[in-house]
Amino acid sequence: LDQVTDKVTTAEIQATISGLTFTEYAEKNFNYDRKGIFGTKTTTDKITSWKGDRALIKTSLCSLNDKDLQGEAVQCFRNVTGFMGDRNTNKNNMDHCYKLLNNMLQSMEDLRNEVYCQICKQTKKNPKEESTLAGWQLMIICLACFPPGALLKDYLMAYCNENIGPENPQVSQYAEFALHRVNQIVKLGARRELPTHVEVEACKRLQPVTVRVNFLDKKYVMMPVNSWTTAELFAEMLCIRLGIENSKPFAVFEVSSADEERVLEPEERILDLVAYWGRLIQEDRSKKGKNAEVEEFHFVFKVRLFFEISDEDLAAVEMMYIQATHDVVDARYPCSEQDSITLAALQVQEAEGDHPGGDCDYITGELRKYLAEKYLEDRDDSELEEQVLKLYEKLTGYTQQEARLSYLDYVKSWKIYGSSYYFAEPQNNRDFPPEVVLAINAKGVLVVDPETKEFLKEFPYSQVVTWGHSANSFVV
Question: Which residue of 104, 105, 251, 393 could cross-link 304, Cys pair, CB 3.0 to 4.6 Å?
């Protein structure tokens, strides 16, 4: 995770904020007229340092012209100090955390800056170690959810940098972690969902959250992610984990229990999406009942673009092979029964190695792993097993890699290999039925009859002069 997430060193970040101090920001932007008993202005040291003894600020730290915003700033301070334990409250710190975050995700930049300034204030010269650490934990949680404004960003990093040092190792660890997250959250912007309790606790401990990623062959891996892990970084991490050299063909998909899928946008945050799934499930169950069956979601890593890959990229070949076997068995390609039997034999060779000789029960009762359901309807399994095993025996000597490459070479020879399918209604064209399927792949566009699976027309990209689309039409 660190290899992918932190591509800039602490020293490099420090160089960008050299000479800046948080005090400078306060002097330029804080409201020094605090309207005390004697109507005197406060000092920079006082306004930027911990306010204890359960005392609250009377107005915003930053100069805010809107009185409503000033009132909201005071309420934010209540939640900041409540979370940190600086004042007694009947709420727990998570209640204060979520109340603050819920307001901040919908707030304007000025109020977000105010909250960051309040956290800086309450962690500076704070005599209570537990309160100080809680403040830095809240800083990390906020940086996981919403960015500081452009004017505050560098000064906030400067404040983090001021707290990196040997004097307090725990604070230093949090401050350095926060330093690295400021630019990341500024780039990403505010998230759309409140973080889950699991994510908040992970932020407090500076630990990742583990999520499950499925593959099409029913296997899976558990991957560490944090609040700033995007789909693009996630795919990169998966390629590193699997040993894939050419990552371009692969992507992370969101797949629902209703079998609907979409590829994740590069900047989409993994844990923000997990929080969104959780909210949908919770809302669904509140309507249908606690134990009702509801739509659920999971991550799947698979092929998105069917590019050519090197035979030497073994992990990439394996992923392309898994995709091909899934698509063939799922009948996503129209192919003959004999083609399916040939491919099934190669699949057995890949999985089991050479035929053991004599009777072989490798595929007894397991044909659905190798053949599309349509070939098994109203058929005697033993007949098909015999045909597959007969071909399988002839493949003796093929290595696992050779079996995979042979399988891929076989399916790549089909015009429809690697296609994405779209139902379409042709307009002003009498040559096509009322509804067709457009199969779009790396070679071109195929028009397919959805009933007969016949190729009605082929358009290599060299023949596509122009194309365009709107919300409900596609013109080619």
Answer: 251
Q: How far is CA 337 from CA 78, 373, 391, in A?
A: 70, 11, 14
CA of 459: how far to CAs of 41, 307, 462, in Å? Answer: 76, 19, 8
∠ Cα 96 121 123 (to 5°): 75
> Per-residue pLDDT tens for 270-307?
999 999 999 999 999 999 988 888 999 999 999 999 99
From the CA atom positions of the chain, what is the Rg in Å?
Answer: 30
pLDDT in tens, 421-458: 889 888 888 889 999 999 999 889 999 998 888 889 99
In sequence order, the β-bridge partners of residue 253 are: 263, 300
- State how far the Cα of 415 lies from the Cα of 38, in Å rounded to an integer: 85
Phi, psi at 299, each rounded to 5°: -90, 140
Percent of the chain having pLDDT more than 90?
81
- Of 400, 451, 445, 443, whose CA–CA distance to 422 is shortest? 445
The string of pLDDT tens digits covering residues 11-21 is 999 999 999 99
Residue 307 to residue 238: CA distance in whole angstroms = 18
Write down the mean pLDDT value for the chain: 93
Q: Which helix (H) or strand (E) holds 293?
A: none
Rounded CA-CA distance 431/426 in Å is: 9
Whose CA is closest to 200, among 147, 137, 156, 146?
137
Tell me the C-alpha distance between 19 and 422, whole Å. 57
Each residue's pLDDT tens digit, 333-367? 988 999 999 999 999 999 999 999 989 999 999 99
Nearest 5°: the CA angle 458, 248, 215 is 95
Length of the chain measured in residues? 476
Give the pair of three-digit tokens for residue 266: 């590069």
Helix (H, G, I), strand (E, B) or coil at 39: coil
How far apart are alpha carbons 72 and 57 in whole angstroms? 12
Strands 250-256 and 220-225: unpaired
CA-nearest of 384, 364, 362 to 373 is: 384
Q: Which two tokens stand for residue 98?
A: 């979520």
Q: Which of 153, 77, 146 has the alpha carbon at shortest distance from 115? A: 77
**pLDDT of amino acid 390:** 95
Which amino acid belongs to residue 85? Answer: G
Task: Provide the b/e sequence for 132-155 (b: ≥16 CB within 10 Å).
Answer: bbbbbbbbbbbbbbbbbeeebbbb
What token pair was written down for 129?
């170690």
pTM greater than the 0.85 cutoff: yes
CA gap 344, 151 in Å, rounded:
62
Query: What are the structure tokens assigned to 281, written together?
Result: 């499930």
Model confidence over 168-198: pLDDT tens digits? 999 999 999 999 999 999 999 999 999 999 9
Q: Which residue has the higher pLDDT, 1 or 420?
A: 420
